[in-house]
Amino acid sequence: MDEAMSSLRKVARSFLANPRSEGAITKLHLKVYLINNYAYEIGPLLSEAIDIGILKDLDLAILDEKEISDCTDEQMLQQASVVNGFFSAYPSVFHCLTRLSLYNICFAELDINHLLFECCKQLHHLYLSNCDLDDRSVWKIDAPDSKLSVLQLNVCLLGRLDVLCLPKLQHLEWDTWLCARAPLSFSVVPSLKEICLICAASNTNRGFVLSEVLNDTTSIHTIKLDFQGEKLWLQPEGKQLTALNKLRKLSLHGIFVEFNLLWTLVLLDAAPFLEIFDIEIWEHPCQINDSMEMYEERPNPSWKVPKFASPSNLYMKELQIIGFKPLEQQIEFIRSVMQRAPILNTVLLKYDDPCEDCEKMGIFPPRPSRNCMFPKGEDEQDMVVNLLKDGVSSPARIIFDD
């Protein structure tokens, strides 16, 4: 890190300290470690470049050398103090900061909303990794004047995130939370279009109904939910899912290989304008034994699936299955989707390469292997096509992608 920052300091001096005949810097991407005295060498260069109008748009990532699992509460508080000291010493940085990435910070002793929304008036993109408010407090964001359009959280162990007002927010992503119930809620988010939620449910996670989270949203067109091979953290529901009525793309990833897939039809029936349905099957024997203590057994989803009456998804064009195997539950699911989508153009069945650990265990043969369950050759693929289309009238092309 010291060598990297020493090199960066030299480059920054050359790049920022000398007058630039070609004019302003349209955008500067900068990743720094605030170690030793480098903050007091990089900071003045940035401030001067901003003050004289050379630098207009700054994408700043303040890194930390520690892995998430190695961070203590004291270290996260110290990192917060270092970051706050940098911004306090060089407030000009706030003026053109459009993207900010922070790592391993506890905001318990700082006013997080003042720092991120009142000071960073030009901020469009915020990424927080392993950041919290201490004691899993609820983070309430009420920033009607904020320009923030993208909010990404990675292993931020909050009590909950309440987005009370972020009028420009378009994309929200949260990877890993420890909330027992719904991890977030929305109020005034008229621009919100994309949500991505990724989490392996621990044994303390009791789940939540999706409509509880989406209740006050009006413009969602893309949703990705990733269960990472554990039990579903969605509780069964049906007609309450009115927030899906404008959905165009739905991705359900990390679904345990032994789960019945028919429960997903409840979400499909609630999204009449859906165009792309994307399913990823999770099968990683290499992780099953390692996760037994932290994660509960995986109960098969018990959602009440309405019987098929007539085609309901009149706009759906593509169904994609990643990790396809010609298992009964997958065949039955695909046939059910084909019945519901009369103009379905493509069913894409994709092989999913095993991870290195699974391959070392010898459980999943490599793709070229004769023992691989993915259909190989024209005969096996024709057999799958016949199983899928027998008694089902559908124009869909069945494509095998190995």
Outline the fold blueprint:
Blueprint: H1 2-17, E1 28-33, H2 39-51, E2 58-63, H3 73-89, E3 97-106, H4 112-119, E4 125-132, E5 138-142, E6 150-154, E7 160-165, E8 171-175, E9 184-188, E10 194-198, H5 210-214, E11 222-226, E12 249-256, H6 264-269, E13 276-282, H7 285-288, E14 318-322, H8 328-340, E15 346-350, H9 356-361, H10 377-389, E16 397-401
Parallel strand pairs: 1-2, 2-3, 3-4, 4-6, 5-7, 6-8, 7-9, 8-10, 10-11, 11-12, 12-13, 13-14, 14-15, 15-16
Provide keyphrases for this structure.
single chain, 402 residues, alpha/beta, 13-stranded parallel beta sheet, 3-stranded parallel beta sheet, 10 helices, elongated, At1g61320/AtMIF1 LRR domain-containing protein, LRR_dom_sf
Description of the structure:
The chain has 402 residues and is of the alpha/beta class. The protein has ten helices and 16 strands. It has helices at residues 2-17, 39-51, 73-89, 112-119, 210-214, 264-269, 285-288, 328-340, 356-361, 377-389; strands spanning 28-33, 58-63, 97-106, 125-132, 138-142, 150-154, 160-165, 171-175, 184-188, 194-198, 222-226, 249-256, 276-282, 318-322, 346-350, 397-401. The strands form two sheets. The chain has a 13-stranded parallel beta sheet with strand order 1-2-3-4-6-8-10-11-12-13-14-15-16. Strands 5-7-9 form a three-stranded parallel beta sheet. Strand 3, helix 4 (112-119) and strand 4 form a beta-alpha-beta unit. Helix 1 runs parallel beside helix 2 and helix 8 (328-340) packs across helix 10 (377-389). The longest helix has 17 residues, at 73-89.
